[in-house]
Every structure is written in structure tokens, then in C-alpha cells.
Amino acid sequence: MSDLVRYALDGSVAVLTVDNPPVNALGIGVRTGLKESIERAIADPEVDAIALICAGRTFFAGADIAEFGKPPASPTLREVHEMMESCSKPIVAGIHGTALGGGLETALACHYRIAAPGALLGLPEVKLGILPGAGGTQRLPRLVGVEKAIEMICTGEPIDARQALQMGVVDALAEGDLRDATIDYADYIAAEGLPLKRVRDRDRLIAEAARRPEIFSFARKHYAGARRNFLAPQHCISAIQAATEMDFEGGMRRERELFNELMASDQSTAQRHFFFAERQARKIPDVPRDTTRREIKAAAVIGAGTMGGGIAMTFANAGLPTVIVETSREALEHGMDVIRRNYERTAHKGRISERDVETRMALLTPSLDLADVAGADIVIEAVFENMELKKQVFARLDAVAKPGAILATNTSTLDIDQIAAATSRPEDVIGLHFFSPANVMRLLEVVRGEQTAKEVIATCMDLAKRISKVPVLAGVCHGFIGNRMLHAYFDQAYALLYEGCQPRDVDKAIHDFGFKMGPFAMADLAGLDVSWRVRKETGQSQPIADRLCEMGRFGQKTGAGFYRYAEGSRTPRPDREVTAIVEEEGLKRHEVRRAIGADEIVERCLLALVNEGARILEEGIALRASDIDVIYVHGYSFPVYRGGPMFWAGQIGLGRVLETIKGFHDAGHGDVWQPAPLLERLAAEGHSFQDHDQAGG
Ligand code: 3HC
Ligand code: NAI
Questions:
Q1: pLDDT, averaged across the chain
Q2: Which DSSP symbol is given to 429?
Q3: Does residue 690 have its Cβ closer than 6 Å to ligand 2?
Q4: For domain 299-474, is the CATH number 3.40.50.720?
């Protein structure tokens, strides 16, 4: 018998305990163990009921994603479920931790379900570009109704145990020890002779929905907008619709067909790559898992501007007391007001309660005295982007921060090593590069200085998870990973304007590719004045953007930038004034303006990202190509269904990518199109960036 499933008797209850760390994924070993244990329980005359529980931190977190793409091995999950549902003795699932995907589907194939109060239950398959393929699209709507099932399956968001009880997904909540509660419940069901409830037999809710087919057209339209270009949500809706149009067996067949289509799709391949990429990014080869961590109980943020305010909110959201230091009372009050207003807006939308607003505000202590950071275990500096100023701040921090405190800078471009050199403890200095708005964006670039201590890195990687961020390690260079690549992307976006495009042409092509917005709408959102100031300071120019700034067009905040914005609106409207400037400046560089198609726009902008990404990888600034993918999806809205720029390049084929890049070089689009040596090498070997990652870089 498989050693992943333990079999024990407790009175007349057979207790099956699955133990497959870390998350009890339902791989072939577990499925075999379940099948054998259930057969044994059925055959044992002493057994009246079966309790199914999991050891460790969670109930089944789903099918084993590592088995995807391999030929299915028997018993399949569906075969195990079939056996469970038709079992002559009641089976009760005892759920703790997270019952996700195939895990929840397994629970739904049991006759009864009992959950620990803290449990979460969900069908997150859509996030992997697939749909629940072991009956979830057929059983869940039978339990909770079609509308709720659509919402759970198309968003992939879990519900908690209390909601699950209310919605009828579980039959009871466990008080006290879950194992005991599950056994008692199973015992009670057998003793009382309660019916073997099979979800497949419940037809009332789906019969009701069958009379309202408009539910499905409405849902299709909704998710076509909310999850633009994603295949999986649409297939999920089709599978749920099948539950209302066919009998259970027919619905299961339709679910399987749709599941197979998705599994074979490029989108799912990309999303599964991304699932592992996110988890891989947390691993740093020379910073092992057992590296000592420093305790973080209190934080401080220097600067209450755009970034400082957002960073402080992030800490307060995670329950960490945080001091916010400013230089002037005015700036401090303004910063605190903005934070309060942000929280109140969130409360107004019903996402947090009024009490949460006050609890979080109470965690924030405003101060005008840098010495008040003395109690902080981590200090994050977010003052103006100026090296001399940052050095001064770090020299003072060195004097006032407690020994062992982590001293972090949020700089987006400056050399962390120079900043660290302003202190007597460079090993405690690190870059924590948040993205704007810092309380919303999930990406965190963790920038490792030459002398940053391993335990400082390990602590920051853990802290990121605590404050709900996705951390990616980067080395020191101008712009680190994300912004250095973005520079190459923007250069091409501008070049396209000079050659023949208008901002809306570039933005449309990039938006259609799957980004939330194109480069010029993004520039308008971020504000054109910041880079204008930098260009003036460094003697550079970008004539189109410079002219817009000279006219006071700084983007959304002034109602005009590359586009025009109606009062109070964020919708970009093309503007004739800009069209004329673009044409005029273009003709100064090129004799004629040419028509440029969407394909070239996408290739110019995105292959520039890939080529620069390859250089960054070769220089060791990024540990892996997949880390770059994580940065672009979380920090720059690269569509996750394309896996990230480096994965996308692999799907095109690096040979073709290289040819296109060489073509741009030959066409005179500039030295940036000199192919990165790593790209040339991988293309010549017939390898992808993923192969490079797997080979250890
Ligand atoms: N299959 C294989 N490995 C899995 C897995 C799964 N379903 N879920 C998690 N893992 C692995 C992770 O890759 C990670 O491995 P590593 O340590 O080697 O990097 C390890 O388990 C721990 O995972 P996390 O780091 O994510 O741990 P957390 O505690 O942060 O989160 C979790 C736990 C919430 C369960 C999270 O892992 C998660 O969301 N897992 C995926 C759940 C999911 O998508 N389930 C659906 C699978 S598809 C399916 O079931 C198809 C079915 O319908 C037929
Ligand atoms: P900001 O101008 O909005 O805020 C800076 C704040 O620092 C101001 O409120 C200022 O009064 C305060 N300040 C200046 N000197 C100080 C001192 N000695 N002590 C305490 N406070 C001081 O700037 P923003 O945008 O928040 O940027 C801050 C840092 O974050 C910069 O290094 C920037 O490069 C970086 N960054 C900015 C991003 C953005 O999108 N704005 C994104 C990521 C990083």
C-alpha cells in the first residue's frame, strides 16, 4: 500500500490520513493510496464509515501540477472520485488549510464535508489557464447554484469556511481538533443511517439555471472585459453551462474536452510556467533556506511622499507599527492626510471596515525627528532621488538606527553600494524597490549590494511575503532589472513616433497584445515631468516629450500629456496638437513618415525588452530568465497568459527572435539592436531561456 496514505481504525471509522508534504498534491502515489485504502475500508466488515483527512499544513492543494503535460496515469482523479461517490459507506472529508482545485473536487466527491474554521476552499485552476477538470464545473453549480459557481470558478478566488457553510459547500464546521471532529461526524452519520449524499444527484439549482440561459451570455461578456483575452474563463463558463444542458455524465465529458483544449493551449503553458516562476524567484542559490532571519517587529519609513506613504500603508496593512519621518510639518501632515484618504476610499468601497481604517492609522506614528527610527528593525528610505541627499540620510541612519536594523533604500536608479558606503554597516544595507502605487503593486525588487549580508536578504525575502509582495532579487545597475529594460522599451516606443506612428497606434498595438496600457498612456499616468527634469539635469533630450512638457502637458495630472483628458476622467483622447508635434519632430529625423503595422510595433517594443533582458541575465543582474518574467508580469502588466517577455520569446523561438533583432539592426534602427551574446549562443544551440534556467544559468 502507498505510504502516502495511512490507514487506521477508530472504532468503526476507517481514518485515511494523506501525508504528502508540502501541500498534499494529488499525485499518482496519493491517488493509488486513496484507491487502495477505500477498497480496504469497503471490504472490512468492521468499518461503517470513512474519514478522509490530510496531515501537515493543509488539505489537498490540488492535482500535482508537476504531472501536467505527462500522459495520465491510472487511477486518475476522476476514477478515484467515481469510486468515492459510489462507495456504499459514507465518506466524510475533514478540511483544514486550503482545499484547492482537485482538492476541493475530491471533497465534493465525498458524501459529507466538515471544515476547520480557518480553512479556505476554492477552484483556482483558471489562474493556471485551465478549468477544474475533475468534476468541479459539474458538482459545484449543483451545490451552490450556477451564478456563484461561475464567480468562484472564473475568478479562482477561494471562500472561507464560514462562507462555505452558508453556501452549502460544507455541511459543518469543526469545533476543536479536526481529526476528532471528522471521526465523530462520520460515526454519527453511520449510526443515524443518514443518506449517502451524492452531489451529482442534486439537480434543483441547475434546472433553475437552465431556464435562464442569459446568465451565461452575461457572464461571457463580463469576463471578456474583466479577463480580457483570457481563454480559460470562457471555457469555464461553457463547462458550467454544459451542466445545465446535459446529464452528469455528458457534462463530465464536455468538461474533459474543454479541459484538454486548455491544457494544450499556449496560454496555460505560459501560466503554469508563471506559477513555478513565482515560487522559484524566492530561492537564492547562495542564501539557503536555513539562513538565520532577523526579527522584524517594527518599521520606519523616511519620506512621506508618493512612495513613502504607500510603503508605510503596506506595513500598517500587515500589522507592523511604523514610524514615518519627514523634514517639514507641512509635508508630514500632507503625507498622513493622503494615507487616511486612501484608507477611507478603500473603506468606502467596502474592502475594509471603518475600524480597520483606525487600526491601521493607529499603527502609523508621524515624526519630524530621524532619531525616532531608533526602535525600528527595518528602515526604508524614500526621499528624493538624489545621491547626496541619500548619503546624508544614510549617514544619519547609521548614527541613530539600532544595531542589526536593516537599512533599505527605495531608490529606482542609484548605486546601492555608494549609499551603503555612507554607513559603517554596509552589510545591513539593501535596496527594496517598491512600485507605484506601493500599497497596490505586488512587485518588490530586492536589490543586493556588494556587501549585503545573506541574512538581510533572507529576512527581506520573507518580509515581502508577510507584506503581500512578490520579491525578486536583482543586482546593482542603473534601473536594476525592471526599469533598465523599460528604458529599452521606451526608446523603441519613441523611435516609432519619429518614424511614422502616433501615440495611439503604439498604445493600441501594445494594449491588444495584452498589456493594461501602452507606453504613452502609462507615461501620462506616471507624469511626464519627472523624466523631463532628469533629462534637463543630464543634458539629454527627447524632443516630442520635451515640447509637451514645455507646454505644461505633464500627463493625467494636468489634464493633458500625450493625450487629452476630460475633467475628472482617466480616458485618454487623441489630441490634434500632439499629432502635429509628432509629425513635425518626426520629419526632422526622417524624410518621410511610413506606415507601421501592429506586428512591427509589438516586435520593436517587446524584443527590445527581450534583448536587454538577455544582457541582464548574462551579467548576473537577474538570477534567472523566469525572474525577469515575474518582474514584468507583476510590475509592468505584461500579460500573464504569455508568461513574461523571456518565456514569450521562447514560444516564438529564439532563432526567429534573433533573426528579427538582426533585421532591425540591419535596417538601421540603432546599436541597441546588437544582439545580446547570450541570445546568440542560446539560439545557435537551439535552446530557450527556460533551458538556460534549468541548466543553472
Ligand atoms: N502541485 C504541485 N506542487 C505544488 C502544488 C500543486 N498543486 N501547489 C503547491 N506546490 C508546491 C510549490 O511549487 C512549492 O514548491 P517548492 O517549495 O518546491 O517551491 C510548494 O508546493 C509550496 O507551495 P507555496 O510556496 O506556494 O506555499 P504557500 O504556503 O505559499 O501556499 C498554496 C500554499 C496556497 C497551496 C499554494 O501553493 C497554491 O496556491 N498552490 C496551487 C493551488 C492550485 O492551483 N491548485 C489547483 C491545481 S490544478 C488542479 O487541481 C486540476 C484539477 O482540477 C484536475
Ligand atoms: P516624492 O517627491 O513624492 O517624496 C519624497 C519625500 O521625501 C518628500 O515628501 C520630501 O519632503 C521627503 N524628504 C526629502 N528629504 C527628506 C529627509 N531628509 N528626511 C525625510 N524626508 C525627506 O518622491 P517619490 O516619488 O516618493 O520618490 C521617493 C523615492 O522613491 C525616490 O528615490 C524615487 O526614485 C523612488 N521611487 C519612486 C517611484 C515612483 O513611481 N514615484 C517608484 C519607485 C521608486
A1: 97
A2: E
A3: no
A4: yes
CATH number of this structure's domain 501-589: 1.10.1040.50
Distance 529 CA to ligand 2 centre (A): 15
List Cβ neighbours of 431 (8 Å cut-off, separation of 6 or more): 408, 409, 410, 411, 416, 445, 446, 447, 448, 449, 474, 476, 480
Ligand 1 pocket check for 255: Cβ under 6 Å? no
pLDDT given for residue 3 in this prediction: 86
Cβ(22) to ligand 1 under 6 A?
A: yes
Over residues 426-440, the mean pLDDT reads: 96
> Do the Cβ atoms of 40 and 9 come closer than 8 Å?
no
Mutate to test the pocket of ligand 1, among 4, 18, 20, 23 (most ligand atoms within 8 A of CB): 23
592 burial level (CB within 10 Å; 0-12, 13-18, 19+): exposed
pLDDT of residue 537: 85
Cα–Cα distance for residue pair 662/498, rounded to 1 Å? 21
Catalytic residues: 105, 125
Alpha helices, DSSP H only, in 66-213? 77-85, 102-108, 136-144, 146-155, 161-167, 178-192, 204-210
- Nearest bound ligand to CA 156? 1
- Over the stretch 159-182, which tens digit does the pLDDT of each residue have? 999 999 999 999 999 999 999 999
DSSP state of 116: -
Are the C-beta atoms of residues 451 and 427 closer than 8 Å to each other? yes
Domain boundaries, the chain: 5-263, 299-474, 501-589
In this prediction, residue 39 carries a pLDDT of 97
Ligand lying closest to the C-alpha of residue 303: 2
Burial class (CB in 10 A: 0-12, 13-18, 19+), 297: exposed
Residue having the nearest C-alpha atom to atom 12 of ligand 2: 303
The answer on pLDDT for 2 being more than 70 is no
CA-nearest of 9, 45, 23 to 186 is 9
pLDDT tens figures, 204-260: 999 999 999 999 999 999 999 999 999 999 999 999 999 999 999 999 999 999 999
Q: What is the pLDDT of residue 518?
A: 98
Q: Judge whether residue 1 has pLDDT over 60.
A: no
394 alpha carbon – ligand 2 mean position (Å):
14
Residue 90 preceded by cis peptide, ω within 30: no
Q: Cell numbers at residue 270, please?
A: 505560459
What pLDDT digit, counting tens, does each position of 469-478 carry? 999 999 999 9
Rounded to an integer, the average pLDDT of 574-591 is 97
Atom number of ligand 2 nearest to Cα 325: 20
- Pocket of ligand 1 contains residue 65 by CB under 6 Å: yes
Q: Which ligand is nearest to the CA of 431?
A: 2
Q: What beta strand segments (E) does 188-282 contain?
A: none
pLDDT score of 11: 97
The CATH class, in words, for 5-263 is: alpha beta
pLDDT for res 70: 87
How confident is the model over 480-501, as a mean pLDDT?
97
Cα separation, 596 vs 584, whole angstroms: 17
Grid coordinates representing 649 are: 520569446
